[in-house]
Amino acid sequence: MRRARWFGVLFAVVILLVGGLASVVRGQPESRVPRFITDDEGRALILHGLNTASSAKSTPDAMPDLSEDDVEREYRDMGTNFVRFLIQWRAVEPRPGEYDEDYLDKVAERVSWYEKRGYHVMLDMHQDLYGPGVTAKGDVGNGAPRWATETDGLPVSAQEQWELYYLEPGVVRAFDNFWGAASDATLMRHYAKAWGEVADRFADADAVLGYDLMNEPWGGSVQGAAFESGPLAELYRLSIDEIRDVDADSWIFLEPQAVGVNWGLPSALPAVDDPRRGENRIAFAPHLYPLPMDLGDDYATVKGEVDAAMTTWSDNVLRTAQRLDAPVVLGEFGLDATRPGALDYVESVADLADATGMGWSYWSNDPGGWGPYDEDGKASPLVKTLDRAYPRAVAGTPTAIDSDADSLTLTFRGDPDVKAPTEIYLPRGFGDGGELDCDGCQSDWDADRRVLSVATVADDEQHTITVTAK
Ligand SMILES: CN(C)c1ccc(C(=O)NC[C@H]2N[C@H](CO)[C@@H](O)[C@@H]2O)cc1
């Protein structure tokens, strides 16, 4: 096995041993999220979507390779209602203190494509390996502008496995200078103010649900609880303050550190105050990439280990969600969908999300083996796997969701204050397209949007509705 692989395995074993012990001694969490994101009508949202798009990491204008027709096709093919839309600090603030309104106009145009189709948009300030400035060619990192990238001339040597770039001296130093630059946190304050500019622009955009403050944070030479409860929590506080100065109501999504937590280890992210009036609107947005598959094995081969890792991951995510009193959106999960067992894995993750009340956005919609369409735009079998029945918006609190190709069962506690109907998306193949039957409810079928609207209940009792196709 290549040196890098051995390193990965060794790194993982140590992490898992430490983390595993921690999770074992921590007792059982709740089985579902403590809260839900709600829409303007007070309905609990179940978010299903895609990450759009990795291509934005490297395009000169930081725009994804996306047309409005692509958004229309996504809805028609998969009935999604959510998008994790990648934006880049380098494009928001190309020079210190100067913000590119043309870039934000382009983002707004794409947001409008989703808004027309009833989507909820999460803006993700995306980075991987800090930013293009960690190398002269700009071919390794994405996210931060060059003026905010201080490697102090330390080397970033070419790596066969991209993850190993995170250990390169120049990358570690760029992060260290960001997290600890001078005592007044100069670069972190720039980053937070960039969020303030984005929020000022989208505060009144109905489709923008909220802001994912940093993709897959990396602490450089500070790791684990010291990082998450230290500089990472401080960046989140600074960014929340800048956002709340201009936007009182959008949701703010916090990610844990990626390494270890993506695999299922517990996060030490502390609860962070939301200064808005009323309930806090802070959500938790972890990623899921089970280590056995990260190390190259197929789900068909390591299903047992991966299923166990998913259980540990879910338990630890729900513990953190309880600590933060936060809704949960699984911001990223994905794999090469052409590999043996891959679609079963995607289905398992979507079932886990139903069972726990999490939303999700699949990584990613970029053409190729991981995505729903190939380079020629031809739909892959992943489209059918992602096109699944789900309650998009619930007039109450969902307590159980169970769906398959022929039926959907939703149990929820009614909320008499919510007047808008519960909306259930049903895929084209649902029950082979037969006549719909909604047991326990009065409903109206919108064949164009493929949405069943279910009349609200006037009480706060537990209700179960089952939709089938006769
Ligand atoms: C060592 N560190 C810090 C590390 C290792 C591995 C990942 C990762 O696989 N991430 C999963 C996917 N997420 C990004 C986009 O957010 C994709 O490029 C990765 O495939 C992240 C960080």
Tell me what the structure shows.
The chain has 470 residues and is α/β, with parallel strands linked by helices. The protein folds into two domains: 5-388, TIM Barrel (Alpha-Beta Barrel); 390-470, Golgi alpha-mannosidase II (Immunoglobulin-like, Sandwich), CATH 2.60.40. The chain has eleven helices and 19 strands. The strands form four sheets. Strands 7-6-5-4-3-2-11-9 form an eight-stranded parallel sheet. The radius of gyration is 22 Å and the shape is globular. It starts with a helix and ends with a strand. The structure holds ligand MNI. The ligand CN(C)c1ccc(C(=O)NC[C@H]2N[C@H](CO)[C@@H](O)[C@@H]2O)cc1 binds next to loops.
Write the layout of secondary structure elements.
Layout lengths: L2 H22 L19 E2 L2 E5 L15 H11 L3 E6 L1 H4 L8 H15 L4 E6 L43 H12 L5 H17 L5 E5 L11 H21 L6 E4 L27 E3 L2 E2 L2 H4 L4 H26 L4 E2 L1 E2 L8 H15 L2 E4 L19 H5 L3 E5 L1 E8 L3 E8 L7 E4 L10 E4 L3 E4 L4 E4 L7 E8 L1
Parallel strand pairs: 2-3, 2-11, 3-4, 4-5, 5-6, 6-7, 8-10, 9-11
Antiparallel strand pairs: 1-12, 12-15, 13-14, 14-19, 15-18, 16-19, 17-18
Helix pairs in contact: 6-7, 9-10
Bound molecules: the ligand CN(C)c1ccc(C(=O)NC[C@H]2N[C@H](CO)[C@@H](O)[C@@H]2O)cc1.
